[in-house]
Amino acid sequence: MLDSRDLADPAVINTLHQIEKLGQEQYDTYVNERLVHQTKPITDPIKRNNLHIFSQPPVREKSRTQFQVLSLKNDCSLFSRLFIASQTRDGDLDEFFAHENQACPPALSQMGKIRLGTKSDLVGCLEGLITPRENDAASPPVEVMILDGAAIVNMLAPGNAKTFSEYASLIFLPYITSQLQHTSRVDIVWDEYFPDSLKAHTRKRRGKGTRRRVEPSSSIPGNWQAFLRIDENKVELFAFLATRIATTETEKQIIITNHQEVLCTQPRDVVGLAPCSHEEADTRILLHVQDAVRHQGKNFRYLAAHEMAMALGPNKCRGLPFFHAFTGCDTMSCFSGRGKKTAWETWKACDEVTDEVTTAFCTLAATPTISTVDDYMDSLERFVVLLYDRTSSQEHVNEARKHLFTQRSRSIEAIPPTREALRQHIKRAAYQAGFCWGLMMICTPELPSPSEWGWVQSDNGWGICWTTLPEATEACRQLITCGCKKGCKGQCKCVKAALQCTALCHCVGDCTR
């Protein structure tokens, strides 16, 4: 729209670009089929186009309740079939619990997507390691302040600002200059938004918004949070704010990232800061911390982090990135009903017996390979078993799944994932901790393809490889059925599997062989 500078959805724009060509192709097809070659009668209906247009209603995804009802129906159907089959055949429960009952493991997925937890719970676990301070005034003065720009934008609503120019001059810039009163340098670091990002599916879950061009005179959208849900909006907004801040007249230093480069209010050497290909502000911030240490002198100490690290110990410090990824982050699922606090206590309990889990965490955070994932599978399986049942004697998750479901009456969502689903989860955690975070001190790290680490690429971007094994309905022998109509013979599925037919078969188990 010309007045608000709202932009149409990319699918609508593509329709407008292709609609004339599409119409011509369909006209030519109609003439050839009905008039020239007469392969179709002229009365045949013309297939309706399903084009994205302005009036087309948005595609609605299943609600949480609808998805839960569908899952329950599938589970009821699965266990009903298993019960009927067990009347004739000896069921193999070990085989059954080695497979997921759904394509997406309920222990790790939510409505077919990653199960998001509360990442900030880890802060409470770390704060519990140190004694609270009684007087913060005794803390040393701050020389450098490094801010997550996206967090500031989410925090600072437009208020009375009418345009993006007013937002920059009346809201954002005053906040940044106020921070300069307490320090000599402020760094602002933005997230990057790559088309093939592993975080794309997480961002989509935040909902849809309106695409609007960010220009100085463009009107501020009425719904600020909906505006910030669109990646393109944030890319333009961050670049706009970076340019405005870089022209601020101040004797102090403001350093702000602008895509792979950095802008500064005062001339300075930016080697070590740019060019930088990091996607997350969380990792790029540490490059700025490193730069601040190098330029601001040696008398520095971030007391809280220092004391936490001392209390945690060197081994657990090295294993912490893998623990954080393994128990849930932006690209990783958390375990159903098992948050970071529970996982933290489980880690402490494991350390009281053996350091195998800590060794696994450290190794996979430092030098991950597919072979090391397999080497530490047993240790991490035991950790997950204890995560779900602190008193369990089982060593492997498949055994624990069977025990918790049959003996403890746990629901499918309240038991661990299968061994193979857990293996894929471990690979994704190792990729995030060992590569995405492990190489954060390098400006332009070379990351391996996620396809080897629990991800699969499609036309819609990177998706999660939940498991490489088929679902229980396809894999369990006791659920094999045949469609024989005139007696079961050599081609019968049940005959091939050396199984007796059941009431689920087309012959309802009354066939003679």
UniProtKB/TrEMBL annotation:
It is found in: Secreted. Keywords: Disulfide bond, Glycoprotein, Secreted, Signal. It comes from the Eukaryota. PROSITE patterns: SAP_A. GO terms for cellular component: extracellular region. Its main location: secreted. PANTHER family: CXC DOMAIN-CONTAINING PROTEIN-RELATED, TELOMERE LENGTH REGULATION PROTEIN TEL2 HOMOLOG. This is Saposin A-type domain-containing protein. It comes from Aldrovandia affinis.
